[in-house]
């Protein structure tokens, strides 16, 4: 990449912004997997960028304590508050301990299972059926976005905003959340002095951020207040046996000797939204696009569903049922490998270090690793790394092959590996299996999927398709 006087390498990045992920992949391949990015001399935009899995393993696993999110990261993500996504050290450990204790409970899994099944049965399938009967084109990404937002609202705060309705309504909190994420991406693309100046003047993207956070905070705090009031009327026995086990209820009722104030609950809820909302949308959107482009894969998924369930089975497959679907699991892994929802991660070194690639890292060095490029590395996945090949995830005995997390990095690795990984897979399988059993899709002619400029890898113009019922 050319290093211009004063401006550094920024012009090359801006010129290729429309294809930034593929551009980054090409540059990293030419440089052996790791290289420096030098921004304008008057900014702090100086990074080491890598897609070397050994470097990633070193940072996320072997030398975890030396590589943190860092103060710059927390400053960019400050509107999200302190939570499992943004925090470091003791704050992060506490959030993770609390989340781990909740998410591993059978009661929570049962609650998620019922919530997803109900949403698929009462909203998702009826809406797809309506669109099919009308012969209309539909944006599948928008459908998945609405479904996921409703689902995660129900899971986190016990409230369904009903974004996924036949009239596709615009819901203020959903729009606010989208705008806050767009603003976070904007903060990553400009020098900090620019967005801080805009924040001070309350103009441009920063004004949108302020307004979006206000809208979302009003929603979260109202949910917290009503939840506290609701639970105050319940006895301990009723809370243990009858209360819906959404995460907000769980955090309030299982405080483990520490009283959680409203700010703690707000930050926890906001971080859970960030961790689980658009990542699911991204994964399902790219998965369905890949399946429509690979009819043989689609046929094998349908064959597996038929082999495991009777043809006249009308119910929505639950968590225990979809665990049997190994080939579908492999197809989802392939979609996540090629199109990881979070395409770039960043770490900041505390002390001087040397990476396995031989690159010297000074204290405070900012390091970016491209998950998108890692999914396209021959050194990790072989010469067929660009192919959509679910079979690479299935053993000769027909079982799921588990790749090391520092290679298959879609759910992070090391101590920060996603606690909801298994739950995310079964939810995606429940949605995918329920849809594919009833419908097939045809992407609108001329529609080309382009990654959006966001912290989550979505399609810029959605996924426009027509729906046909299976015979």
The assigned structural class equals alpha+beta
* β-strand number: 10
Q: Percent range for helical residues?
A: 40-55%
Quote the beta fraction.
Answer: 5-15%
Main sheet?
A: 5 strands, mixed
- Indicate the low-confidence ranges by residue numbers: none
Q: Count of DSSP helices? A: 19
Mean pLDDT: 86
Shape: globular
Elements, N to C (H/E): HHEEHEHHHEHHHHHHHHHHEEEEHHHEE
Strand sequence of the main sheet, in spatial order?
Answer: 1-2-8-5-3
Q: What Rg is obtained from the alpha carbons, in whole angstroms? A: 22 Å
Distance between the termini: 53 Å
Overall description:
By secondary structure, this protein is of the alpha+beta class. The protein has 19 helices and ten strands. The strands form three sheets. A five-stranded mixed β-sheet has the order 1-2-8-5-3. A hairpin with a 5-residue loop joins strand 6 and strand 7. The mean pLDDT is 86.
């Amino acid at each position: 990449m050319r290093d211009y006087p004063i401006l550094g390498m920024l012009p090359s990045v801006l010129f290729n912004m429309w294809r930034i992920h593929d551009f980054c992949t090409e540059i990293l391949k030419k440089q052996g997997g790791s290289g420096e990015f030098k921004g304008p001399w008057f900014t702090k935009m100086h990074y080491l960028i890598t897609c070397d899995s050994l470097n990633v393993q070193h940072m996320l696993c072997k030398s975890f304590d030396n590589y943190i999110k860092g103060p710059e990261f927390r400053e960019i993500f400050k509107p999200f508050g302190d939570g499992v996504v943004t925090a470091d050290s003791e704050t992060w450990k506490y959030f993770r301990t609390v989340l781990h204790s909740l998410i591993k409970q059978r009661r929570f899994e049962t609650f998620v299972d019922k919530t997803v099944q109900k949403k698929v049965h009462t909203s998702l399938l009826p809406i797809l059926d309506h669109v099919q009967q009308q012969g209309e084109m539909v944006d599948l990404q928008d459908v998945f976005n609405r479904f996921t937002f409703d689902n995660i609202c129900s899971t986190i705060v016990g409230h369904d905003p009903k974004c996924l309705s036949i009239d596709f309504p615009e819901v203020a909190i959903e729009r606010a959340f989208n705008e806050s994420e767009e603003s976070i991406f904007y903060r990553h693309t400009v020098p900090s002095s620019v967005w801080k100046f805009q924040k001070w003047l309350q103009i441009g993207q920063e004004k949108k951020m302020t307004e979006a956070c206000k809208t979302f905070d009003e929603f979260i705090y109202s949910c917290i207040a009503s939840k506290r009031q609701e639970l105050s009327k319940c006895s301990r026995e009723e809370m243990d046996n009858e209360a819906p086990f959404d995460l907000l209820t769980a955090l309030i009722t299982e405080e483990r000797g520490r009283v959680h104030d409203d700010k703690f609950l707000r930050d926890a809820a906001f971080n859970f939204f960030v961790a689980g909302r658009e990542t699911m949308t991204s994964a399902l959107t790219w998965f369905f696009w890949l399946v429509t482009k690979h009819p043989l894969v689609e046929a094998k998924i349908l064959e597996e569903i038929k082999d495991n369930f009777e043809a006249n089975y009308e119910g929505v497959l639950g968590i225990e049922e979809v665990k049997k679907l190994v080939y579908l699991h492999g197809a989802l892994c392939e979609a996540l490998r090629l199109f990881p929802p979070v395409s770039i991660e960043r770490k900041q070194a505390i002390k001087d270090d040397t990476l396995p690639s031989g690159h010297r890292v000074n204290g405070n060095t900012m390091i970016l690793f491209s998950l998108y490029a890692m999914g396209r590395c021959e050194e990790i996945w072989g010469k067929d790394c660009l192919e959509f090949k679910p079979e690479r995830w299935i053993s000769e005995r027909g079982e799921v092959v588990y790749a090391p997390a520092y290679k298959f990095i879609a759910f992070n690795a090391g101590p920060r590996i996603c606690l909801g990984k298994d739950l995310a897979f079964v939810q995606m399988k429940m949605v995918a299996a329920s849809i594919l059993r009833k419908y097939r899709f045809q992407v609108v002619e001329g529609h080309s999927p382009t990654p959006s400029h966001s912290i989550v890898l979505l399609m810029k113009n959605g996924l426009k398709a027509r729906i046909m019922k299976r015979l």
